[in-house]
């Protein structure tokens, strides 16, 4: 089996934890591993290969989170066109008889063995040329998910996100059946699928021929960036109609089957659903400390809160039922149960300070990471980490000079015609206008502090003369 | 008249805005001026001189907030012994016939002309050898203040902080009198006083002779640090019994009078009282942005909150009646009306991370300020500002080297035998073990970035060879 991992996501629902440039699948919410890494690992046990469909800008984020030995294939989209085109493009890279397991990259699945069992059931159905979807037995009347009305493995119909009353009716119907030891009739549509690549493409061609044709043309015209890495061209992607796999194929095809399952699934689509998956500590307060050395939460007469903290000390006094999400440049405080409204927050902030919806102060780059420590109109301080073997572009700046102090690792620095090493506790200076390059030829990460000084210190004052990442 | 300004304060009630090393009188809560500056300015119109009693560690904080032309006299206490000794020591610096106006440094007084009138009334009574206290006409049944039971200018008795029921009875009694156009009987004890220095000392000698004797000895043994700056020795201060002026003198003396007044007074003793003094914006949300360029608060369906913000973007969703206090290293979220419990928070944090109750990341020093931008086990980044004409100690470090990049102003740097200038966009390097000094001989502030690198970067790795501030 081939695992297609869909890595889209706009990074708005878990803002400020997630941002456009760091959607939630790449955030290490549950400790050492990101949801993307957990997904890849979970499916590695079931699939012999994986095909990752992600935004071109996030390729390095995703590939840096994979093990070095990974043979995953990347399909890079310049823009997102929803799930139907993403899955179609991926299937077109495969042989028609190959079976694919399509999964999101940002869902949580807690019951691994039930999951594996469900996938095996789905795989069997897929071999019989069915398009298989996974239906999650609901725990509660969620109104944020679509439902599948099922009769065993047969799909009677797909149901839109219901109002609360209807969702409760579904739960009631399920409960009645459960009392008779019968399987649930109303299932959550999980967005996971299993089918033969060719069968899916045939059905897509039949029911949404425009998506099929434009996707085929786009794939045909793809750019091979390097081994196992393909990029769709922007204009080709634009030509593909955006649609979800549910609308484009599943709701229309008569080859659809469902595997009802209870696999401890959550789409973590809001802080409330994240809260539901977090173990409560003392007095019902949950803490997710996503940076090392987060100080202990101080609670005075406070209960039933979810606090996501970074370096800052947080103290609560007489607080009940709040979600507190603290990052280095933005703080969200929401009542529990209201986290769907976070969307209104990101919309407001897009107008006020759009950069806060796009990046963190800690930024991933193809060559490593940087963090802005201080920014003023005439200088900027960054901590820069260059991974072993990586190099920044050969570049120059019109308006700023740069002072570099190496704190660990060894920098190979090019300035004009000269090329030299800078060791820990040594520094160098790059005058404005001078062509320069920073490399890490060493075996350990290079960490350095950069002090930029100049009349303008914006990120866009950069002229790239050469770049191994094609920027 | 001589204004004695009491500058004690432990910096715990408005934590994390205030800290031990930056009590609330020095925080610029209401914009450009601190409460200390507002106090000094307010009384400069009434008094010909001022005498500031403050902790020795905070001398530079206070003197930096005064105008350069200020002729204020400083009396520095190594430790606090409450108000009676502080006022006694100050009075002993003056002639017995001099009239003093004793004020806190961290109270808010909004009605300046009513205040001036009240002070003039008090001054007249003080000339007649009375000890005069100021009684504030209460607006509401506050349980956090002591009360004065008055009959016109006569004090019938001092009342401890009342329970709510009793506080309400006081209000009721006042209302009845007000209906008959009679003055209030129960007044808040404001902690402001007016009397002849000699009269106060006579009464202190009579009712609390131990305080009088030990204070006289301590003052006699004082150190003259420089012109208009006296320091009490630690052992002398320790010998003085700690007591408030109310217990030590006012509640015992029969020379006490009260000036009832309505001067828009608040002691700002909690975030709730701060909230009461803050103008509410849209939907009852108040914002105090205490650092420049604070982003606009984003509110979704949120009402009646007080947000004290610094650089971080803050967003509220479905939040009502909260106090949110955000600083660069600590965040407090409290229900409105519960801010008295902040004390429990600071007690907990004293055990967990005591440095957070002592200093901010932004630290005041005799020579200027510094801010820690990043700290790890092997390096530390600081932004350092040296005020014009100031210099750091001649010093060395065993474990760390320092890289200095000047971003504005000019540094005069001594390293070993050499002395040289470092201009903006220039850098220099101080190897570990090397004796060095940083000075600003220029006419504008010097700002520079320091990158410390070494096996240990704690503040205590410093050997001072010479220091103009006697450290």
Structure write-up:
- Chains A, B: Residues 356-467 form the Mannose-6-phosphate isomerase type II C-terminal domain.
- Two copies of one chain form a homodimer.
- In chain A, helix 3 (83-92) crosses helix 7 (209-220) and helix 6 (197-207) packs across helix 7 (209-220).
- The first copy, chain A, has three domains: 2-266, Alpha-Beta Complex (Spore Coat Polysaccharide Biosynthesis Protein SpsA, Chain A); 280-352, no CATH class; 362-466, Jelly Rolls, CATH 2.60.120.
- With 471 residues, chain A is an alpha/beta fold.
- The first copy, chain A, contains twelve helices and 30 strands.
- In chain A, a hairpin with a 3-residue loop joins strand 18 (322-326) and strand 19 (330-335).
- In chain A, strands 1, 2, 3, 4, 6, 7, 8, 9, 10, 11 and 12 form an eleven-stranded mixed β-sheet that branches.
- The interface between A and B is large, with 57 and 57 residues.
- Strand 17 of chain A pairs parallel with strand 19 (330-335) of chain B, so a sheet runs across the interface.
Explain briefly what this protein structure is.
Chain A has 471 residues and is of the alpha/beta class. Chain A contains 12 helices and 30 strands.
What brief labels describe this structure?
isomerase activity (chains A, B), transferase (chains A, B), 34% strand, homodimer, 12 helices, mannose-1-phosphate guanylyltransferase (chains A, B), Spore Coat Polysaccharide Biosynthesis Protein SpsA, Chain A, six-stranded antiparallel beta sheet
